[in-house]
Specification:
The chain is built from 9 helices and 7 strands; from the N terminus they run αααααβαββββαββαα. By secondary structure, it is α+β, with helices and mostly antiparallel strands. Strands 3-2-7-6 form a 4-stranded antiparallel beta sheet. β4 and β5 form a beta hairpin. It is elongated, with a radius of gyration of 21 Å.
C-alpha cells in the first residue's frame, strides 16, 4: 500500500492529500500532542488468529494492551526501553518484554485491594489447564501487576516461592490465600493483600538499576 502511494503515477493523489493535511494542520498537531502525552489511549492490540477467542478474551486483551503501552511509556520516561514484544512467537516463548518484565492488568485491585497472581489458565471453562503466569517457561524476571492508577512490581522468584509454600506445601502465609477465578473459570492463582504487596514491591528505578547490573 505504501509503495503504491509513492509511485509517480499517484503524484496528483498525493498532492490532493497533502492539501487536505495542510488545511487541518492545527487539528493534526493537537492530535499528535495528545498521542505523545497519552499514547496508551490510542494504540490498539494485535489480535492473532492462532486460536478461537471469546468476546471476553478480546475485551481483556484491549484492556491489557492499554496498560502495557502505559508501562512501556513510563519506563521510557525513566530512560529505559523494556523492549515490548508484539510478535506471537516472542510473547509465547520469551515473555512480554525483552527486559523480562511481565505486565499484567488487574482491574480488581481497586475494588478488592488484592493483587492476583496467576499460575494456571485455560481458554474456556471446559478446557485443559496449562501452566501460565509465574509458572510459564519463559525469561520473565519481574511481574508488574495492577492498573494505570496503581501497580506493584514483584520479583518472579519470590512469587514462585510463595506458590510453592501455598500450593505444594499447604502453608498458611499472612496476607495471602489461594483462589480460583469463578466468573469464567479460566484462571487459577492466589491473591496478595495490598499491604503485603507493598512490602514486596520494588520501584521502577530499582528494576532498571537491577537490569542494568545484570
Amino acid at each position: 500500500m505504501i509503495d503504491e502511494y509513492n509511485t509517480p503515477q499517484n503524484l496528483q493523489r498525493r498532492i490532493q492529500i497533502q492539501k487536505v493535511v495542510e488545511t487541518r494542520k492545527a487539528r493534526l498537531d493537537l492530535f499528535r500532542d495528545k498521542y505523545a502525552q497519552q499514547i496508551w489511549n490510542y494504540e490498539k492490540p494485535v489480535i492473532w488468529s492462532d486460536r478461537r477467542k471469546t468476546d471476553y478474551y478480546i475485551e481483556q486483551l484491549y484492556v491489557s494492551h492499554r496498560f502495557e503501552v502505559y508501562i512501556d511509556d513510563l519506563f521510557r520516561r525513566h530512560g529505559y526501553d523494556i523492549g515490548l514484544f508484539y510478535g506471537k512467537d516472542q510473547q509465547y516463548h520469551q515473555g512480554e518484554t525483552k527486559a523480562g518484565i511481565e505486565i499484567k492488568c488487574d482491574m480488581q485491585l481497586q475494588k478488592t485491594g488484592n493483587v492476583y497472581i496467576e499460575y494456571q489458565e485455560r481458554m474456556t471453562n471446559a478446557g485443559e489447564w496449562v501452566d501460565s503466569g509465574i509458572l510459564k517457561q519463559d525469561q520473565t524476571k519481574y511481574f508488574l501487576i495492577g492498573t494505570v492508577e496503581e501497580f506493584f512490581i514483584l520479583p518472579r522468584e519470590r512469587l514462585q516461592n510463595y506458590y510453592h509454600r501455598l500450593v505444594k506445601c499447604g502453608e498458611t502465609i499472612k496476607g495471602m490465600r489461594l483462589v480460583e477465578e469463578r466468573a469464567h473459570q479460566t484462571s487459577k492463582g492466589f491473591i496478595i493483600q495490598r499491604q503485603r504487596a507493598r512490602q514486596d514491591h520494588i520501584s521502577v528505578q530499582e528494576v532498571i538499576d537491577n537490569l542494568k547490573s545484570q
